[in-house]
């Protein structure tokens, strides 16, 4: 039998890593031999979570050539590691917009407009009457907390809340305390080079008028980043050129107050942001009240505008 790799997206976040671990356990349970992988270096929140629930880091896979694989928490080729051949795709478990996967044979494709891939995986266990082990419950709960910013992101559904409660009971952890420690770990910038800050949670999108990139940094201490605005903007300008983008945005998301600060690195970005969000830019920063979700509140609006 062929070993299957279960892998999340590049610039992995907590949801994509715990979904790979929980997904692999699930596929092993249903008789498909698999192992979890990560598509890049882990952020501090994810490291905290793995450490907290005493789970080791999945192996790093930067090239899928030759592997049969399951995609979790993404489906876009742009977000996958190199070497992806969709004829070897076994399954997709995801909560992002569809971006045109084609296969020659039917595959398991599970996608829901819900707060996290972790939520979907918990449902899949229960649908198959598979018990969720204590550790996996903790990991899945962390994936939900991370992606929904503890149920505050507009991507959150009632199901995310209910399933998180059930998982918290199994894992015997307090959701508020776990979330607080996760966000604290995520907000710790000490010793992280600026290049990593701008690219750790970064995605590229295609529109009819050109490609744009968008990086996000979720934090409980936005001022720490705002204070380093000039350095960040310089690094972003370099990245924009290197990645050959027409626009590059970077948002500092205030997890607690539920707002974003959009850093505008040039006239193109300022102009587009003004048209899409109608906000006022002040010294290169546009304050976006109530906006915390790139997936639901930012990218669709930019794409709508650019694809008109
Ligand atoms: Mn993700
Ligand atoms: Mn996710």
Structure explained in plain terms:
It is built from eleven helices and twelve strands. The strands form two sheets. A six-stranded parallel sheet has the order 3-2-1-4-5-6. The mean pLDDT is 96. The site of one manganese (II) ion has 6 residues, from loops. One manganese (II) ion binds next to loops.
Distance between the termini: 48 Å
Residue fraction in strands: 15-25%
The set of bound ligands, ions and cofactors reads: manganese (II) ion
Oligomer: single chain
Order of helices and strands: EHEHEEEEHHHHHEEHHEEHEEH
From the alpha-carbon coordinates, what is the Rg to the nearest angstrom? 19 Å
Structural class determined from secondary elements: alpha/beta
Q: Describe the biggest sheet? A: 6 strands, parallel
Helix percentage range: 40-55%
Q: Please give the order of strands in the largest beta sheet.
A: 3-2-1-4-5-6
The stretches of 5 or more residues where confidence is low (pLDDT under 50) are none
| Average predicted local confidence, pLDDT | 96
Number of helices: 11
Topology record:
Elements: E1 4-7, H1 14-29, E2 34-38, H2 44-52, E3 59-60, E4 68-72, E5 89-94, E6 108-111, H3 117-127, H4 134-148, H5 158-171, H6 175-187, H7 194-199, E7 202-207, E8 210-219, H8 222-226, H9 229-242, E9 247-254, E10 259-264, H10 267-277, E11 281-282, E12 285-289, H11 294-306
Parallel strand pairs: 1-2, 1-4, 2-3, 4-5, 5-6, 8-9
Antiparallel strand pairs: 7-8, 9-10, 10-12, 11-12
One manganese (II) ion is lined by residues 9, 13, 15-16, 73.
């Amino acid at each position: 039998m062929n070993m299957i790799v279960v892998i999340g997206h590049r610039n992995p976040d907590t949801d994509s890593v715990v979904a790979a671990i929980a997904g692999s356990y699930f596929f092993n349970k249903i008789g498909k031999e698999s192992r979890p992988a990560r598509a890049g270096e882990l952020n501090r929140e994810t490291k905290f979570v793995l450490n907290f629930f005493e789970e080791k880091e999945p192996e790093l896979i930067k090239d899928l050539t030759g592997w049969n694989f399951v995609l979790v928490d993404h489906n876009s080729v742009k977000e996958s590691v190199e070497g992806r051949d969709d004829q070897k795709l076994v399954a997709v478990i995801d909560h992002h917009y569809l971006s045109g996967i084609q296969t020659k044979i039917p595959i398991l494709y599970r996608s829901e407009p819900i707060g996290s891939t972790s939520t979907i995986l918990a449902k899949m266990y229960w649908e198959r009457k598979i018990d969720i082990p204590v550790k996996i419950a903790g990991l899945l709960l962390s994936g939900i907390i991370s992606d929904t910013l503890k149920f505050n992101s507009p991507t959150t559904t009632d199901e995310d809340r209910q399933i998180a409660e059930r998982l918290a009971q199994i894992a015997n952890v307090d959701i508020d305390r776990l979330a607080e420690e996760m966000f604290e770990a995520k907000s710790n910038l000490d010793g992280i080079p600026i290049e990593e800050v701008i690219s750790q949670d970064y995605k590229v999108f295609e529109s009819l008028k050109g490609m744009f990139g968008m990086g996000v940094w979720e934090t409980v201490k936005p001022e720490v980043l705002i204070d380093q605005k000039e350095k960040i903007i310089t690094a972003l300008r370099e990245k924009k050129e290197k990645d050959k983008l027409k626009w590059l945005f970077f948002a500092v998301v205030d997890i607690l107050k539920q707002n974003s600060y959009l850093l505008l690195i040039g006239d193109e970005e300022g102009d587009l942001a003004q048209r899409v969000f109608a906000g006022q830019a002040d010294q290169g920063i546009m304050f976006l009240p109530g906006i915390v979700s790139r997936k639901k509140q930012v990218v669709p609006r930019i794409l709508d505008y650019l694809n008109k």
